[in-house]
Amino acid sequence: MPGLVLLLAGFLVPSVAMLFAPPDVSTSEIFARLGEMLKDPYDLEVIGRTVGLALVVTVICVFLGFPIAYWLARSRSRWSGVLLAVAIFPLMLSNVVRTFGWLVILGSKGALGQLLVSLGLVETAPQLLYTKVAIVLGLTQLFLPLAIISCYSAVAQVDPGLDDASRGLGASRIRTLWNIVIPLTMPGIVVAATLVFAGSVTAYTTPYLLGGSSQRMLSTQLFTYASTTVDWASASATALIMTVLVFLVSGLSSLMGRKGATS
Question: Which residues of the chain carry a pLDDT beneath 70?
């Protein structure tokens, strides 16, 4: 009960107030602005860019995170714990610090551009900042540790003896992974995908610093409405869209996780 009261008073009530009762704005104005945004080509482009980049980041993180988690969970090396700590170490650093690292790498005079010039692949350093590629790289680095942790906990709960039994019956390593390990760890994979997608949709610092004004996402748009133009109706409508997207994906992920668990 104390935890429930804290959740209601500290999270749910302020969230509902932010979505439906911002300063000097009625609920009808919020829904009217929401309808306008769902018809405006610019706002639809921002929504599509946000969902598209979040899906790309989710796919990359799951496809990279699961093999790493599987290798760490099945490794018998005494260094496996150290390697796991290294894999999740970025979570201990500030998002701003990690994002500024990409500014150093992707800038016009950054390490990557200078490397391409020195190798003779290009004459001038390409513009990598303020592009979708920069946002994807930054968000992938940001949320890959979450995918690794979620997949690692799922793989660690699968008895390694099942792998040995499958291999003993003649199945290859890939077939064992595909037919046994992945179905049993599907709930963990779904959790990883949900966390990465929700984080990518709502992330602000990384899209703001790496995407700039040319690659607006819902989070940066929300910040502009709330802090620059002080348009609370648009800010609440944007927050509603982000909330619906997160809950929609969470619901679909929950259904997929249940099907994976029952199958």
Answer: 257-263
| Chain length of the chain | 263
Q: How far is CA 134 from the centre of its chain?
A: 14
Q: If you average pLDDT over every residue of the chain, what do you get?
A: 85
Query: Which parts of 119-181 fold into alpha helices (H)?
Result: 132-156, 160-168, 173-176
Contact assessment for residue 50 and residue 215, using Cβ atoms and an 8 Å cutoff:
no
Distance, CA of 133 to CA of 139 (rounded, Å): 10
- The DSSP call for residue 107 is S
Question: How many angstroms separate the Cα of 53 from the Cα of each of 2, 48, 62, 123?
Answer: 38, 8, 14, 29
Distance CA 227, CA 221 (A): 10
Please tell me the predicted confidence (pLDDT) of residue 60.
96
Residue 85, classified by CB atoms within 10 Å of its CB into exposed (0-12), middle (13-18) or buried (19+), is exposed
